[in-house]
Amino acid sequence: MLSRWRYRRRCRALAQDCVQPTVAAYSAGCVGLIVDKLLNTPIISVDLEMTGLDAKQNHIIAIAWTQLDNGRIRLASNRHLLINTQQSVGYSAAIHELMDNDVARGVPLETGLEALFEAARGRLWLFHHAGLDVAFLQQACIAWAGVVMPFMVLDTMKMELDIRKRQNLPIHQGDLKLGKLRTNYKLPAYTAHNALIDACATAELLLAVAAKMEAVGSLNLQPHLTYF
Amino acid sequence: MPKKFHDLSFIAEFLHTVQPFNSIETGALHKLASKLEVAYYVQGKTILSSSPSAGIAIIRKGAVRLADESHKFLDKRSEGELFGHEIFFHGEKKEYIAEAEEDCLLWHLGADDFEKLRSENNLIGEYFSSHLNTRLRAATQVKHNVTQVRDLLKRPPVSVDRRMSIHAVAKKMSAENVSSVLVMCDKKLCGIVTDKDLRQRVLAKALNPDEAIEKVMTVNPMSVAADAGVDATLLMMMRQNYHHLPVMDETGPLGLVTAGDILRAQSEHPLRIVRDIYKQNSIEGLLKLHGRLPSLFERMVNLGRDVEQIGRLVTLITDAFTTRLIQLAEQSLGPAPMRYAWVVFGSQAREEQTARTDQDNGIVLERDTDADEAVYFAKLSDFVCEGLDKLGYVFCPGEIMALNLKWRVSLTRWKQHFDSWIDEPEPKSVMYCSIFFDIRYLYGDKQLVQDLQNHASTRAMENRIFRRFMATNALLHKPPLGFFRRFVQEDDGSHSEGLNLKHRGIVPITDLVRMRALESGIQDANTFRRIELATVSGVMNENDASSLRDALRLINRIRLNHQSTQMMAGEKPTNFVPIEDLSPLLRRNLKAAFMLVAEAQKALASRYQVH
After folding, report:
1. A80, A112, A207: residue with CB nearest B5
2. Does the distance separating the beta carbons of B42 and A75 come in below 8 Å?
3. How far is B356 from chain A (nearest CA, A)?
4. Chain A partners of B61 at a C-beta cutoff of 8 Å?
5. Tell me: the pLDDT tens digits for B27-83?
6. What is the CATH number of the domain that holds B222?
7. Which of A169, B179, B222, B278 is the most buried (most CB within 10 A)?
8. Which domain CATH number covers B363?
9. How far apart are CA B432 and CA B417, in angstroms?
10. Which of the pair, B265 or B9, is modelled with greater confidence?
């Protein structure tokens, strides 16, 4: 994790110096992004599927996202890209239900990243459990553009953790999982799972968590940000 | 371009369950899904401050309260329903505001996309403009209300000469399939005879059927002019308690109109919901229908349907929910391992339910169960009772439910239950009896219930000591003496605030009437029918019968109006009426009703020499 100051410095540097046009444009967008209330902040909610949990060893096999504007999720912005990786999905297929032949139909990782960072331009990132996904994206960006990409991130898992810590609530194993939290917030249960559904599910969860926080004060996103 | 796909099937899947989108094909559904925006509203938040809004909103999760500009409740919408467009409440287009009654997840469709959808898709377009048809239909219905009774006549009258024998008249009525005939004296109307007259004045009195019909007819019946308004006619029939009315013009009788004809003509039948209930295949589906009950209830009350009928209709709906749940349970559990019957008790058995009601039910089994069979019926009861609870028929506080092992036993054990209460009456068992003697078969093997009822009613009829205990119990709830400004005047001289119409009015009457049923072996549970049967069999005189009937009608009417107002205000219906809510006229009438009940209680006390 970075300080806000170092994050901004990296964004400015990349915006000026990077020759890769998508990265430069994305970084310029980061410089210009002002984060305050949820209602005013453009957000992109992202979820990845991987062949495992190690960002250095395993590969991304699906990238999905949806965008939020004015506090609403625009379903028109939904994208779900399968990534054609050389690595076999192996046992991870049991989790994401993507088989080698599904993945073979996918696009090259570079194409996927390009589309993702275009969609993310000028937006705040949203993940549920950001650390893992960001680590994979940063590894991928090093290979793709040779840069360590800056991320300004909102993490629903961390937000819920903060709520519980503040209220001195006990936290048990599995309490902060996406499905469990959605049940707690009385959000609808999705029977199917894929990266896109989880990206949308995370976005809905953000709305519910924010609504809960807002009840005790207008929610400013600034204190909930993390920088990578 | 990267290969991308808008995988919206998880959105489309839900849209597919939403009217009118369930009618459109998958491609269009995906297109619609891609236009939606998801928003979240915390409970209490205003979603719409005026209507029609730009576009529509689909409720994905939660519930929304629609209210008029003075915040008066109009409707509640829940998961899978829409709002935001023009809505007709009871046939009338009204502007409304929308508030989140629970935390809500909504799918918004913007104005432009909504307009485009309506114009591009015929079925959707029709659905939203069919609200206009609804308005027209509603308008013609209103017009129908003020049209003439003439329009309701379906056939020329069946008439007979006054000298015709009762037997011949009855034969003619059967042949013509009518429930009433006009009696003519020299081509002039001079009387009317109904099925009820034949029962009460001929059969019950064992009158010779060869007598002339004029002996049993109602002489010079009230009639109505063919150009009289339908509303006025209905009002007249209700006031006089006539069910049939001859319709006349200058040439003579044109036909007969019944209260049923008028009510049918006035509104779409509330029992349409029953048909819908039987189409549902899940608790979720049933829950959705259950949301329609408050407005249905309000409509029944406001239409002025008589209280007997409202109780019956509300119960019919409860019966349908219960039956459907049992069917669904049987579908998932497989056929029952033995004959059994689902029985209902209390107000559901009496067909006297109102807006506020819990569940009283049980299962009569053919024989004792083995371990596997016990599991089957445990699962069945669990499913049905839990389902009813979710539907708002909350668990019976006294645990009189099939869920309770005690009330899910064989016929033999049921008989033993009744025997023990009747043979060894004590306060608890007498309290049970006041619930369990109001019993009605609902589902399964009817014979099992019939056997049990025969057994119980014979035993009760034979045992005067038991009935004496029941009489003591029937005197526990006493009507108040009168009212004093905001207070109820109690008979011990003290005052209490507000009036519980159920405990102070309804329960004493049902208890009194149940005593008559026990005395004469009447197995019907409905209070009005019990009164009727007790009168016919002679245990109750016509005077007492009409006193109790009138008192019950009045008290129930006040209770229903009160509950309907509460529900429309979005409150939970109660049986408790603040005295200041009653007009002076109502107070006077209510006081008279209570006096009748008190007198009947005194008569019961002296009959059984109890106090």
Report:
1. A80
2. no
3. 27
4. 186-188
5. 888 888 989 999 999 888 889 887 767 789 999 988 888 888 888 878 778 788 889
6. 3.10.580.10
7. B179
8. 3.30.460.10
9. 10
10. B9
User: Does residue B17 lie in a domain region?
Assistant: yes
| Among candidates B8, B37, B102 on the partner chain, residue whose Cβ is nearest the Cβ of A74 | B37
DSSP assignment of B183-227 = EEETTEEEEEEEHHHIIIIIITTT--TTSBGGGTSEES---EETT
Please check whether residue B1 lies inside any domain of the structure: no
Of B2, B35, B40, the CB nearest to A107: B2
Residues B18, B45 share a domain? yes
CB–CB of B3 and A105 under 8 A?
Answer: yes
What is the value of ipTM here, to two decimals? 0.90
What average pLDDT does the structure give for chain B? Answer: 84
pLDDT at B305: 63
Q: Is A116 on the interface with B (CB under 8 A)?
A: no
Please say which residue of B412, B428, B462 terminates a domain. B462
* Domain end call among B434, B462, B490: B462
Residues B400 and B364 in one domain: yes
Q: Specify the range with the lowest mean pLDDT, choosing from A41-45, A199-203, A213-217, B20-24.
A: A213-217
Same domain, B279 and B398: yes
Taking a contact as any Cβ pair under 8 Å apart, which residues of chain B between 543 and 582 contact chain A? none
Task: State whether B199 and B292 are in the same domain.
Answer: no
What is the C-alpha to C-alpha distance for residues B184 and A111, in angstroms, rounded to an integer?
A: 95
Tens-digit pLDDT profile for residues B192-245: 999 889 999 999 999 999 999 999 998 888 888 887 777 677 777 776 777 888
Instruction: Assess contact for B98 and B68: CB atoms under 8 A.
Output: no
Residues contacting residue A207 through CB under 8 Å, at least 6 positions apart: A38, A71, A73, B38, B39, B40, B105
Going from the N-terminus, what domains does chain A have, and what CATH number goes with each? Answer: 4-227 (3.30.420.10)
Q: How many CB pairs under 8 A join A and B?
A: 83
